[in-house]
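Quick one, T. Sequence first:
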Amino acid sequence: MTLVLNKATTVLPVDDAERARRFYAETLGLPHRGVADDGSELFGSGDGPMLQLMPVRDGKHSEHTALSFEVSEIEKTVQEMESKGVRFQDYDLPDLKTENHICTTDSEKCAWFMDSEHNILCVHENITTQADYQL
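Structure tokens:
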């Protein structure tokens, strides 16, 4: 058996499913697919990857990036998202520094933000080609 990631579902914990649904549908513009039997809000299109926002009672969330969206023009994406009210995190650490909300490494540019439920999300742009990766 071989697992296929293009059919994978990312599950994020949410304290308030309705608030989270509005954030992902209205602020981020993801296509809403409906509500599961357990109250989870479902996002995605066609047969591609899915996002499931699962209601939790304990309020526990990850302290690391839970989901990253690949984009082609990160500067433009960050500006557009800010205009919709998304607040990006800025860092000034020895190994992680942002400028205009964006951290640039040898292989990618990244910008982090939190969703309405305090899950850490990211937008990233690859700046190397697949041929540049050494396996």
